[in-house]
Structure formats: C-alpha cells, structure tokens
C-alpha cells in the first residue's frame, strides 16, 4: 500500500457485540464481508468487546475462530489498525490471539483522542453497577488465580463449561429487570469525570442510542453501539467532519 493511499484512510470505526459462534454463521459471514469491503477503507477499527459469544482460551481453534483471525490479520496487513477491548463473554482473549490476528489489546477503560476530543472507550459491563451478582462474578473471574484455574483445564472440558455458562447467563437475564441490565447513570458520570472526558463510546447493553449528558456542568455525550443480529447490524463511523451510524 502506498503512503498516499494510507494517508487517505482517515475514518475511525467502532463496533461491538457480534457474539460470533458456530451457531450463528450468518453473523460471521456478515463480519467477514465487513472486514473485506468496509473496514479496509478505514484508518482504524475499534472492537469494544464480545466479538465472540464465548472464549475459552487462545488454544481453541474451533469454527469460526481460525477464519476470523485470518481475516483480521489480512485487514491489519492492508494498513487498517484494529484495537480490542475485552467483553464480558470473551475476556480470556490473550496475547497469543493478539499476535496471530494483529489486533492490539487495550485496557478495559481506554481514552483516545478522536479528532480533537478525548473519548473514553469501554465494553460497558463495568457501568452496569446495579447488577450486583454480575459485578461480584466479574471481580472473581478477572483474578489471575481464576483464569489460571480455567485455562489449565482440558480443552473439551472448557468447551462444556462455556456452554453451561452461556445457558446460565441466559436464564439469569430472564429474571432481571431492564433497569438492572442497563448502565447506572451515576456510574457513567463518575467514570467520565474520573477520566476527564466528555464523550463515551461503549456496547454491552444492546440498546443502541446517543445520550446527552451533563458532567459537572459541561455538555457530554454517551454513544451506545448496536448489537449485531441476523436482520440488522451497525457501525459507528467517525471522520473529521463528524459521525454517523451506518447500517450493514
């Protein structure tokens, strides 16, 4: 790729919550088409968590993981940077995945300068502080001891456990109110003030929207990315002239 062509790529893309799995081949096909035909025109792609519906370790090569990694690598080699923030479903993604795909792993809260505005990026689950049970599990499951205990288990056993966790998560969600499953407004304001940002982009809640906020007397915005489904998917596109939500 020529230096001139690289300079022409100035668009920044944001996606999250694809939940890729062998049971949803249509979403994988849609994502690969997006990487090949749309994301290749962008300077950077930020994936804000839950690219996969579950992740049991970097040694898992079951479909569609191998194919997805290869297409991510192809995109990086074409000159588009890809950044990743772990989701609640694929937080075990590690450095081996990063090396094989070319994707750069970011911290759970990361601030970028988005055309002159400091912008906070996160998956979004940390902001759902009303969900006490989940937050307790999150603290436990992010400990190195818990991760080591899981990752040292045989692959077939981890596959079974992942299926069980997905079923348990589905059943638990049915019992929880919409309020508990959404972000806590005060937590949003606190974390944006802590990171000194007036713009927040996240996923996780599957409630695509743009919210106007007031952070210590200053106007702010919170962008919620859409979930990818068979019938609909979307990407938040940002250029120097502004942003738009693009349907795929």
List the main descriptive attributes of the protein structure presented here.
248 residues, alpha/beta, 5-stranded mixed sheet, 9 helices, disordered N terminus
Give the name of the CATH architecture.
4-Layer Sandwich
Low-pLDDT residue spans: 1-7
Sketch the topology as an H/E string, one letter per element. Answer: HEHEHEHEEEHHHHHEEEEE
Within the largest sheet, what's the order of strands?
A: 4-3-2-1-10-11
CATH class designation: Alpha Beta
Q: On the 0-100 scale, what is the average pLDDT?
A: 93
Tell me which oligomeric state these chains represent: single chain
Q: Any idea what the CATH superfamily is called?
A: Metallo-dependent phosphatases
Description:
The chain has about 250 residues and is α/β, with parallel strands linked by helices. The protein has one domain (about 5-245): Purple Acid Phosphatase, chain A, domain 2 (4-Layer Sandwich), CATH 3.60.21.10. Helices cover about 40% and strands about 20% of the residues. The protein is built from 9 helices and 11 strands. A 6-stranded mixed β-sheet has the order 4-3-2-1-10-11, with helices on one face. Strands 5-6-7-9-8 form a 5-stranded mixed β-sheet, covered by helices on one side. A hairpin with a 2-residue loop joins strand 8 and strand 9 (about 220-225). About 30% of the residues are buried.
């Amino acid at each position: 790729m020529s230096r001139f062509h690289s300079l022409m790529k100035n668009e920044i893309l944001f996606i999250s919550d694809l939940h890729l799995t062998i049971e949803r081949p249509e979403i994988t096909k849609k994502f690969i088409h997006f990487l090949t035909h749309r994301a290749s025109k962008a300077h950077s792609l930020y994936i804000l968590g839950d690219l996969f519906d579950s992740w049991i370790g970097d040694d898992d090569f079951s479909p569609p993981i191998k194919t997805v990694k290869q297409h991510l690598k192809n995109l990086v080699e074409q000159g588009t940077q890809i950044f990743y923030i772990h989701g609640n479903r694929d937080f075990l993604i590690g450095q081996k995945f990063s090396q094989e795909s070319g994707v750069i792993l970011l911290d759970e809260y990361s601030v970028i300068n988005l055309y002159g505005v400091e912008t906070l990026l996160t998956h979004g689950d940390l902001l759902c502080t009303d969900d006490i049970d989940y937050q307790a599990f999150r603290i436990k499951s992010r400990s190195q001891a818990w991760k080591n205990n899981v990752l040292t288990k045989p692959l077939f056993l981890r596959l079974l456990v992942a299926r069980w966790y997905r079923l348990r998560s589905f059943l638990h969600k049915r019992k929880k109110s919409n309020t508990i499953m959404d972000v806590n407004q005060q937590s949003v304001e606190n974390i944006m003030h802590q990171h000194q940002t007036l713009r927040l982009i996240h996923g996780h809640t599957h409630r695509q929207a743009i919210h106007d906020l007031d952070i210590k007397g200053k106007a702010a915005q919170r962008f919620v990315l859409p979930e990818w489904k068979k019938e609909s998917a979307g990407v938040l596109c940002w250029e120097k002239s502004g942003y738009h939500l693009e349907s795929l």
